[in-house]
Amino acid sequence: MKELGVGIIGTGWVSGEYIRAFELNPHTEVRGMVSRDRARAQAKAEAFHATHCRAYGRLEEMLADSSIQIVVICTPHHLHVAQGVAAAQAGKHLVLEKPIALDIEGLRKLQAAVRAAKVKTVVSFVLRWNPLFEMIKTFLADGLLGNLFLAEVDYFHGIGPWYGQYEWNIKKEMGGSSLLTAGCHAVDGLRWFVSSKPVEVCAFGNFSRQNPLRYEYEPNSLTMVKFEDGTIGKVASSIECVQPYIFNVELFGDQGTVRNNQIFSKHWTGQKGWATFPTVLPDSGDVTHHPFSDEVRHFVDCILGNRESHANLEDAVVTHEICFASELSAREGRPVKLPL
């Protein structure tokens, strides 16, 4: 019998990727799924061949299952705090889909619950395990870019009626903001590459003139971040853009520059143009494109080794504070100091 049982809350698109990832891991198996419609949970488990999975109609029932040590929260955004608090209080380790909270009050409540329970957490900024991200982190560690002074990470993904979460995502109380609902991947990427404490945020947001997708909040934002080491960062996020999915990474250092999978460095004597490296780019919003298995492997290793993830709740709080500060800055027309 595998050491760790997994319970999944939610039966949407991303839940299938978690079933695959945990069923593939040699230490884990999916033993529970929760949906308001128990039959839907059962059908999801069967579709992904989770043969030891029991369907639950209420979260409390699954949290009482002593064979489950890890809970995955992949429900609509506005449910994450209450479900995360309940799971932490039940002593379960947590995988949290982003955003982990839609306001600072919810963020602090979840943070307090996890601290009190002393459970392990990972927030699914899954691109940290994307091969391009891993390649860029190696370039940075090897000093090929030197000291960064400017960084840009952008998220462009039109989320309309063709996208599964569209109907609830356009609502302010459920979607939150352009950054919270999706662009936070870019904010987290910016932090992951810069590796310095963010200290100030200035931002602007808008709607397109007709707002054809009926968003209740500004679906487009431009966020500037000042870091403690002097680096300046920028995140552009649009979820009503009319184009294919694009996730841009541009990092400028005193020894070189990265543009997605292209690099130019002073360290390579004789280089006359961009060097292009074949890798897997974060160029799709399809969850099947994302490295959930690598994220799960990392988290399971953290649990078994009794260590914290680099993408744990405490780290994700900083990313979310930038998102909240961006919204506040755009609304009030002023820079916002961090931490909040």
Task: Provide a compact summary of the structure.
By secondary structure, the protein is an alpha/beta fold. Helix content is 36%, strand content 24%.
Number of helices: 11
Beta strand count = 15
Instruction: Give the fraction of residues assigned to helices.
Output: 25-40%
Largest sheet geometry? 9 strands, mixed
**Could you give the distance between the termini?**
45 Å
Assigned CATH superfamily of the largest domain: Dihydrodipicolinate Reductase, domain 2
Can you write the helix and strand succession as a string?
A: EHEHEHEHEHEHEHHHEEEEEEEHHE
**What is the highest CATH level, the class of the largest domain?**
Alpha Beta
Overall radius of gyration: 20 Å
Strand order of the largest sheet: 14-13-12-11-7-10-9-8-15
Kindly report the CATH topology of the largest domain. Answer: Dihydrodipicolinate Reductase, domain 2
The low-confidence runs, each spanning 5 or more residues with pLDDT under 50, are none
Sum up the overall morphology in one term: globular
Q: What is the total number of structural domains?
A: 2
Structural class: alpha/beta
Task: Tell me which CATH architecture of the largest domain applies here.
Answer: 2-Layer Sandwich
* Arithmetic mean of pLDDT: 97
